Amino acid sequence: MSQSLILALIFGLSSVGWAQTTVKPVPAHPTTAIDGKVLYREYCAACHGADGKGAGPAAVALKKAPTDLTHIARANNGSFPEERMLRILQGEDSVTAHGSGAMPVWGTVFNNMSPSIEMAQLRVHALLSYLEKIQVK
Predict the structure, then answer these.
(1) Is 41 helix (H, G, I), strand (E, B) or coil?
(2) Measured between alpha carbons, how far apart are the two ends of the chain, in Å?
(3) 72 neighbors 85 (Cβ within 8 angstroms)
(4) Average pLDDT over residues 100-122
(5) How far apart are CA 88 and CA 95, in angstroms?
(6) Is 94 helix (H, G, I), strand (E, B) or coil?
(7) DSSP conformational letter for 66
(8) How confident is the model at residue 62 (pLDDT cuts 50, 70, 90)?
């Protein structure tokens, strides 16, 4: 998988006046953040939305709508599947909706930008913890 993030939308008009929406992949920028909410906003909100409901600014340009991350526990009988979500974030499990791997594998991205594996793992776990906190009751 490419280590690109889907971060920016470019809106243009064709010669007939129809709006075209495309996603411009850009390299992941390094971060010093270790707070899950900050990491989410930096790396996930472009697609999943600031509130996690799947309506980020890049969502309209994706082939498949991003998942509403606030309903993960609800879809799993009220229990947040921490182990499975960890495997998804680390790229060990795939998500069928992502098809060709449109969602970056954050474990790999964080490993490549971190000075140590421990820092990368800290970020993945912080992001996982934040996802658990935003679950609807």
Answers:
(1) helix
(2) 34
(3) yes
(4) 84
(5) 7
(6) coil
(7) P
(8) confident
